[in-house]
Specification:
heterotrimer, A: 362 residues, alpha+beta, Rossmann fold, OB fold (Dihydrolipoamide Acetyltransferase, E2P), six-stranded mixed beta sheet, five-stranded antiparallel beta sheet, 8 helices, 20 strands, 35% strand, disordered C terminus, C: 289 residues, mainly alpha, MetI-like fold, 13 helices, 75% helix
Chain lengths: 362, 269, 289
């Protein structure tokens, strides 16, 4: 793996109304695309601001390339930010906006002009060099904000929900472009979003944040297929969470039992003991409904509703004990089960994740 | 029936607006018109003349009062501009103990009757030994102009996206650079607008000037006041018309400036 | 353990204090000090200056409790009250119509409202004097129309003073009211109408409550200066005794500075009190137009 570029060590921040960040630690490798994912107020923006220097942590250290940056003011850090509101200087035109950081460095005029031209070309905004920010559309302003931040060739680029204000199509387009830019330039990106689809699409690693803490840090696949907490399981993707007691353990598999029925669980990644409570997360795409009982599974349920979801049918069922589940059924509505029908749930135990608990997970 | 009511309602607004505006401008028009009245007594129109204006310009005392008022307005608005702006910047982004108190006391002149301030100045100055006259006028005018600059700049600062200053720092600007490159250019319209307001207030001030002036120094509004108390003369009309013109220009300019920069700032966010 | 960023924060704080220093100086020496001096003068025996060795007394304040002085205060308050109410009744509809006018008109109207506002009050009052005189325009017109035989003596009446006051203050009412109506989300009124409310009902239950902050601001901005005014009644005639006249007389005619100071202090308390109540009721910064 590449060297560690940024290291956040036990960052704590309190704004006076309770802790905003409580013990944040993260290592970001050079060239990585890391996303901080979480709901509003979870502290992701504060974390970003502490990295850029616009905010200082109460405790903990920020190291960049081994150097302790904790007490450095933002203007002295080789880190640049793309702000959520773009923050383009309204009294300067596009060219002067992009050139601003370069002029501060004292570069000579010709070098500045060359670099500005390169940057504008990079974000495909060359013909807008003389325009004022007020004359640009949202998507265009965003590109200039990126160009301005990249002009200084920072070691680390921070992006605070940059695509939030764009409509869906434009957002998807920009996601692809940003990813391409990052790979092309090889710059380390730290990205903030609350849109889990965006995070999964773009990141090398995702750090799911909640109430000032990291719930889980891992690749999109790890986050998706092996969530470690209920929160992470529910934040990303659609799933059903089952809670039951371990009835028996047999080597690699265990059998869980609750008022809804019985089902097997992959016990390789979790140490389960009989009598323990166990939480299981099954992604909706992995949970299937069958008209006949499946061996190993004893989960009869009644169909509540079947809804078409573009390519498959989502079947909402009520289980024997009253719990609700969502499963993926047939491909067409015509083949779907009807409300009131009895169906049986099943899935591949290797594709379900045991979450939470003291003896579970890493 | 409803359509007729709707039509009547639509007419209400322009009619009412025009009516009030007419009443608002009627006295002003009177003054302007009568400044061209060749008769001495007001009320009876006796023919058009600009003689009052020419007499005004020949009047040395008038010229002196005009000079004083202009110097006073320029100096106090300039001083208030600097002090009020610095104060607004200092008090907006940071909070230190005593900040609220400074703000309250500094904006007090706006909230208490000028009469009280005026007599307070006279009392204090005579007790302490400060000479009345131009110097005292400049000091006191600056003091009551500061709140206008301060509040205007502060409101502009508070409404400004803090990310703009942060972005500048993020790109490598020291706090002083941020002030120079970003903050000042963006608040300048408010500073200018506040300064124009201050100039207008100073040119118009009667009460405080009344208490703080000396026998040798008089200002234009004071001259108008004494003139009016003794019944009013056509020269006063001419003078007032001129003052009106000047203030009209100042206000129009400041409003235009405000409107234009508001547009620039709002659409960029 | 030292917290991170302490040095940075301290430097920022020092900078803020430096910037605020000039204003603080002016505030201390030219606002606080004069007022404290007046306060001191009011608490000292008549004829004495505020200095060490002067005799402390509350007599100046006790004198105010005399019936005729209290009457002056009452008159001023009454005048200010009437002025405020009339300004509101005339000014609010104006502000409302202005806010609902088209974009083009709005700018022109704003200019038209602000200009008299900044024009010398003296001048405008003088204009009224010309209008209302015995041989002034209004009397002349009325006589020509045959409505009256002899000139009505407008000047010198309570009505003329009230008229002059309203005239001077109305801009102070219009601007904040306009700002409030302008900022109001008009779709709320449309929602009310959609739910079946007639226009007057929508106005009473939606527009009025939502624009109350502007109304309060306007009332304060009109009431406070009204209480302290004195030169207006001089010019319009009538010899109406207001607090302003009283204080001025004490200072310049009777030369009882101590009593004048006491009266001024009560005036300041009055206006400060009104402001405090305004702020308590959630009032915002005044003075930005």
């Amino acid at each position: 793996m590449q060297e560690v570029l940024l290291s956040l060590q036990h960052i704590k921040k309190d704004f006076g109304e309770g802790e905003v960040l409580s013990d944040i630690s993260l290592d970001v490798h050079r060239g990585e695309f890391v996303t901080l994912l979480g709901a509003s107020g979870c502290g992701k923006t504060t974390t970003l601001r502490i990295i850029s220097g616009l905010e200082t942590a109460d405790e903990g250290r920020v190291l960049l390339g081994g150097r302790d940056m904790t007490d450095l003011p933002p203007e002295k850090r080789p880190v640049n930010t793309v702000f959520q509101s773009y923050a383009l200087f309204p009294h300067m035109n596009v060219e002067r906006n992009v050139a601003y950081g370069l002029r501060l460095r004292g570069m000579d005029k010709r070098a500045i002009d060359k670099r500005v031209r390169e940057m504008l070309e990079l974000v495909q905004m060359s013909e807008h060099a003389g325009r004022m920010p007020s004359q640009l559309s949202g998507g265009q302003r965003q590109r200039i904000a990126i160009a301005r931040a990249l002009a200084l060739e920072p070691e680390l680029l921070l992006l605070d929900e940059p695509l939030g204000a764009l409509d869906l199509q434009l957002r998807r387009q920009m996601q692809v472009e940003l990813k391409r830019l990052q790979k092309q330039l090889g710059i380390t990106f730290i990205y903030i979003t609350h849109d889990q689809e965006e995070a999964v699409n773009m990141s090398d690693r995702i750090a799911v944040m909640r109430a000032g803490r990291f719930e889980q840090i891992g690749t999109p696949e790890e986050i998706y297929d092996a969530p470690m907490t209920r929160y992470v399981a529910q934040f990303i993707g659609r799933s059903t969470i089952l809670t039951g007691t371990v009835a028996s353990v047999n080597g690699d598999t265990a059998v869980i039992e609750d008022e809804n029925g019985r089902y097997p669980v992959d016990a390789t990644r979790a140490r389960l003991a009989p009598g323990e409570t166990c939480e299981l997360c099954v992604r909706t795409e992995r949970m299937r409904v069958s008209r006949t009982p499946v061996s190993g599974f004893a989960l009869p349920c009644t169909v509540k509703e079947a809804r078409y979801a573009g390519g498959s049918v989502l079947t909402y069922v009520t289980m024997a004990g009253g719990a609700e589940a969502v499963a993926t059924g047939e491909e067409r509505m015509a083949d779907a089960a009807q409300p009131g029908d009895t169906v049986y749930l099943c899935w591949n135990p290797a594709q379900a994740a045991v979450i939470g608990g003291a003896s579970h997970g890493a | 029936m409803a359509a007729k009511r709707r039509r009547k309602r639509k007419l209400f607004s322009p009619i009412y607006l025009t009516l009030v505006l007419i009443i608002l401008y009627l006295p002003i028009l009177m003054v302007i018109i009568y400044s061209f009245n060749s008769g001495r007594t007001i009320g009876a129109w006796q023919g058009f003349t600009t003689s009052w204006y020419t007499r005004l310009f020949g009047n040395a005392l008038m010229a002196d009062a005009l000079k004083n008022s202009l110097i006073l307005a320029v100096l106090s608005s300039a001083l208030a501009g600097i002090i009020g702006t610095l104060g607004a910047i200092g008090l907006t982004r940071s909070h230190f103990r005593g900040a609220g108190l400074v703000e309250t006391v500094a904006t007090l002149p706006m909230m208490i009757p000028e009469l009280v301030l005026g007599m307070a100045y006279l009392a204090l100055f005579t007790a302490v030994g400060v000479k009345l006259g131009m110097g005292a006028l400049i000091l006191t005018h600056t003091t009551f102009c500061i709140p206008y600059v301060f509040i205007n700049v502060k409101s502009r600062l508070v409404g400004m996206d803090p990310a703009l200053e942060e972005a500048a720092r993020d790109l490598g600007a020291s706090p002083m650079r941020v002030l120079r490159d970003i903050t000042l250019p963006l608040i300048m319209p408010s500073v200018v607008s506040g300064m124009m307001l201050s100039a207008a207030m100073s040119l118009d001030d009667v009460v405080i000037s009344f208490f703080v002036t000396s026998a040798e120094t008089t200002t234009l509004p004071l001259k108008v006041y004494t003139g009016l108390r003794s019944g009013g003369t056509p020269e006063i009309n001419a003078l007032s018309t001129l003052m009106l013109g000047a203030i009209f220009l100042a206000v129009a300019l400041s409003q235009l400036l405000r409107a234009r920069s508001d547009k620039k700032l709002n659409s960029a966010q | 353990m030292a917290h991170n960023g302490d040095a940075l924060r301290r430097r920022e704080k020092r900078r803020s204090i430096l910037f605020t220093l000039p204003m603080a100086l002016f505030a201390a020496l030219l606002v606080a000090l004069p007022l404290i001096y007046v306060l001191g003068t009011s608490l000292v025996e008549s004829g004495q200056d505020f200095s060490l060795g002067a005799t402390f007394t509350l007599e100046n304040y006790r004198r105010i409790l005399r019936a005729d002085y209290l009457l002056v205060f009452l008159n001023s308050l009454q005048l200010a009250f009437f002025t405020t109410v009339i300004s509101l009744l005339i000014g609010y509809p104006f502000a409302y119509c202005m806010a609902r006018a088209g974009r083009k008109w709005r700018f022109i109207l704003m200019m038209l409202v602000i200009i008299p506002f900044w024009t010398s009050a003296l001048v405008r009052i003088y204009g009224w004097k010309i209008l209302l005189q015995g041989n002034g325009l209004i009397n002349t017109v009325l006589k020509r129309l045959g409505l009256i035989e002899t000139s009505i003596k407008f000047l010198g009446s309570y009505g003329s003073v009230l008229l002059a006051m309203v005239y001077c203050m109305i801009s102070f009412m219009i601007l904040p009211c306009h700002s409030a109506v302008d900022k109001m989300d008009f779709t709320l009124v449309e929602a009310a109408r959609d739910l079946g409310a007639p226009p007057w009902r929508a106005f009473l239950t939606v527009t009025l409550p939502l624009t109350t902050p502007g109304i309060l601001a306007g009332c304060v901005l009109v009431f406070v200066p009204c209480v302290g005014i004195f030169y207006l009644s001089d010019i319009m005639g009538g010899g109406l005794m207001l607090i302003g006249n009283l204080i001025r007389d004490q200072l310049l005619k009777v030369r009882d500075w101590n009593f004048g100071s006491a009266l001024s202090m009560v005036l300041v308390l009055l206006t400060a009190g009104i402001y405090a109540v305004y702020r308590k009721c959630g009032g915002k910064d005044l003075g930005v137009f």
